[in-house]
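Subject: Interface between my chains keeps coming out wrong

I've been trying for a while to get a sensible model of this assembly. When I model each chain on its own everything looks fine, but I need the whole thing in one frame so I can look at the contacts. Pasting all components below, labels as-is. Any help appreciated, I'm running out of ideas.
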Amino acid sequence: MRTPVFILVQIVIAAALYFALRAVNNDYLFYLGYTVLQFAILATAWNILGGYCGYVNFGSAGFFAIGVYTSIFLETVGQNLDDIFPAAIAGPLHAILPMPVPVDVVFGGIVAGLVGLGTGYLTLRLRGVFFAIATLALAVVLQTFVVNWSFVGGSRGAYIIPPDKVPVFGPYIQYLFVLMLVLVIVSLTCARLIERSRLGYGFATIRDDELAAEACGVPTLKLKLIATVLSGALMGMAGAPFPFYIGYVEPGSAFDLSYAVNSIAMPMIGGTTSWAGPLIGALLLGTLQQVATVTISSAVNLLIVGLLLIGFVIVAPNGIVGLWQAWMRRRKQA
Amino acid sequence: MDFGLLINAVIAGLLLGAFYAAVTSGISISFGMLDIVNIAHPAFILLGSYIAYAVNAEFGIDPIIVSIAMLPAFYLLGAAMYQIYYASFEKHGQESLRGLAFFFGVLFVTEVCLLLIFGVDYRSVNAPYIGSSLSFGGMEFPLRLLVPCVAALAMFAGLEIFLGRTFIGRAVMAVSQDPQALRLMAVDPTRIKRIAFGISIATASMAGAFLIIIQPVIPSVGRDYIGRIFAICVLGGLGSLPGTLIAALLLGVIESITSVFYGPSWAPAVSFGILLLTLAVRPSGLLGR
Amino acid sequence: MSASLLQVSQLGKRFGGFVALDGVDLQVAPGERVGLIGPNGSGKSTLVNCICGTLHNETGSVTFAGETVDGMIAHERTRRGLARSFQLPRPFMSMTVADNIRVPLLYTVAFRVGHHVTKAEADERCMELLKLVALDGKASKNPRDLTQVEMRKLELARAMAAEPKLLIADESMAGLSHSEVEDIVALLIRLNESGITIIMIEHIMRAVMAFSQRLVVLVSGKKIADGKPDDVIKEGEVIGAYLGQ
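Reply #2:
Try treating it as a single job with all components included. I did that and got this:
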């Protein structure tokens, strides 16, 4: 289907979901839904670089946290304008700061994208393995930096007190939920557009055989940088609303390892070759994890994710989407 | 500048550096020579630490002795892991993405299992030398650092001799450079790689014992070491054991000085910062090919 | 000198202690058909890799179409009209045969022409090229389903898809039958007559002699002969190199 139709279909489904949840009228479902949507964005973002180009990013938590802390930074500046700036500047700034969450999202995306560009520029000329290790390094460096930066709370953490109710939506969580729905639509549309474009071909050649790709005229470094920036920016955007969702952020929760594992496990289990894979992975694993955390324990739930990741990587490397495609092929031949 | 403080920081750094070299030696083999990115290595080190802890707590046996006794078990574990890795990925040429994801999964599962079994409390071992230090000339040599340091250097020397002097050891060095030549000598490269990977994991057993002597551990400590290990590996030059030692000592000293003068919370950033810098400026490392 | 399409001067390349190329000079005039031969390990593929930018040469320089390409990375050289096929075929395994051909069309030709190649144009050109190498029946298959021989043809077709000025065919005929070799030689000659300069690297002497207007011989990283094919094969050194004198 053409892209505008795809977007429309997503909007319809998203709207239906929202109104259904509203009808049930249980705020917990919105909190749960927010987490799953967050994973959907992270998984889709990871897949653009990991699944399409074949470059593994272990530092998803780092890019996510950039979004988180950009929001916290902007909020804190906005709350303390009079302490930071002289009156002449603070006055007019009061009109625009603190900024609404969607604006934080944009800034989060920009900063994360820039960091992705910088990291990529330093390391993408080396083998994919070194890029993967560098992303791990990046997450740790960022966390150390944040822990030592008291303006955004340092290791003590930062409080963001969101309003209780907002116009139109009612409970604040519903507003955030809808925001995440929009971001999911943006990510999925982005991923699907790439898949069907020349860029998608280029990414695939990088994954298959970078040397041959160059020989065919594909500018591999440029494309890898594009993928890294896009991927990082989307992750940053996913992180920006997080402080408003959770209220209190300390570095451990923003840089939590579960982000790194899930953003790899969900696309690999769902299927890395299609935009649908990360979404399926996020929906399945996301809900599974919420259930496991509540009924068993959060440690066991991570264990399950890890085991599923190993299992799928060995047995079904193309994920659920791959299994479905193989099944369809067998049916056609029968 | 307090020179006494500086000198002791350097000494601690050197002692620690030797330990780091032991920790990294496994990766020097698996990544430097076999080209397998086993980022789960730190988890195996932690496994070694916890086994040493459990036996030490129950029977009071010295952790290093425990780790030596566990060498065969770890070797077999490594050989088994390589077999799975080879059958699933290497044979089909799919190592990069799937191999990385596989080891990442293993790292994760191991860490969580340790967490479930041992919990989040810090664990440490009891040994007669922990807590005291040798001092002369105003310099402090904490024994909890000195003993692992000496043992680590011994292990390191043993590896060097093995790789340089024995047939299998030389075959391991050859397999990274020319698997075809090995085949011509009727040596199966896969078997050599399996042996090498087994050895690489076996080093984790001893490294784990060293770790828990030096500091109390919880399962997530492994992740702190990923950065150090790869920073040392890359800085020293892949596949060069002497390079690994030099890089490890260097890192140990820089980290120690940073920790003493700027605070320990900056320590993780040191190794990763060095890693990023090396990758950007001289990816082949100090002594790399 | 100024009329040469490709000029390689004093090219040197080492791998650690091993000298793969030792001061190689080579000139190719536009429209020429050059054969490059030499025993295994003589440095032929290394030479190709250095010319095309896949490997970086330590000494010497490469000039293509009047431009020094030394600092340029591989895809930039391809876009300037320098294409090559790989000795061991390297198809993109996650795409169909037709899509493999599409890549150079989208990434090389499109950039040269300055506008996007439309889907229809790309499809048409794909099928043309596949017909040339008799692979049009397998257009929607995965390269995994091709025979070794078909993969070599795909490799050649993909290099041709880049619409090069100079095409380096690296052992594209290994394993082909007698008539298939003749077909490929005829194909390459036809390509040459349409204006493409071709360097053929081969072990199949029959093909090399039938194809080349000029023959270059590389042994142990050094050029030991360069001239008319009939003259070159009579040279003592060349015979010695092949018979291991």
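Reply #3:
Confirming on my end. Chain C touches chain A through 31 residues (CB under 8 Å).
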